[in-house]
Amino acid sequence: MLLRPGLMVLTGAIGTTALHAHHTVQIMKSESAFCIGDEHGVTASCQAVVIPPNTSHRVVEGAASATLIHLAPEAAVAPILCPEPADAVDGWVRHGAMFSSGPIGMAAIVSGAVEPDRSAWHPAVRRSLADLPGLLADGPVRLSELARRVQLSESPLAHLFSAEVGLPFRAYVRWLRMQHAVRLFAAGRTLTEAAHGAGFADSAHLNRVCHSMFGAAPSQFGQLRLVDEFGDP
Predict the structure, then answer these.
(1) Rounded to an integer, what distance in angstroms lies between the CA atom of residue 130 and that of residue 80?
(2) What is the set of domains in the chain, with CATH numbers?
(3) pLDDT for 172-228, tens place per residue?
C-alpha cells in the first residue's frame, strides 16, 4: 500500500465486497478478469474499470493480483479519468478501456499531477486543508472551529470548501480519518488504537465507516505492507 495526500494505492489479491461507495475516483486493473457490479444488479467481467466518486459498486468476483488506485476528487487527473457521469457498469468499463488497451499506465497516474494547483484557491480553503490532518486525533472536527481558525464565517467556508475541494467538508474529513486509520493499522497498531488515533469514536465506528467506503472490514488492511514508491505490476 502506498499512501500520500489524496492518494491510496493497493496492490495484491482482491476479494469480493459488499455494495459500497467512497468519495474517491477508483481505478481497478488486473491482468486477469474480475467481475464488478452496480447498485442495479448489473455485472460485467473486465480487466480495468474507473469508478466515479460516490458511486455504489461491489466486487462480485475478485482477482489473484490487481492494482487499485483511489484518487481524491480534487486531484488534477480526476476529470480526465471521469469525463462524463457513469453510475453503471458499462460506463466504468468504458472509462477503464484507457488502461486495459490504451497507452496510459497506472504508474503514470500515480506519478503524474496528483496534487492539484491550489495557488488560485481561496486562502481559507488552503489553510483548512493544511490544518485538518493535525486535528483528526482530537475527535470531532467542527466546521465552526475551522472557520474561526481561518477567520471566515461558517457558511461561506462550507461553500468554498465543496466548490474547490470537490467534496463537502464532513465527507472530506471522513476520508482523511479513514486514510489515517488504514495507515496506523497497516503499521501494526491494533484496531482500537487505529480508530482512536484517527479520531473515530471507537473500533465499531471505524468498522462501520470502512464497510460503507470499501465494502469490507478494516482488519483486511492489517495484511498490507506500506511502501514509498509505486510501479506498474
Answers:
(1) 26
(2) 2-111 (2.60.120.10), 123-223 (1.10.10.60)
(3) 898 889 888 988 888 888 989 999 999 999 999 999 999 998 888 887 776 777 776
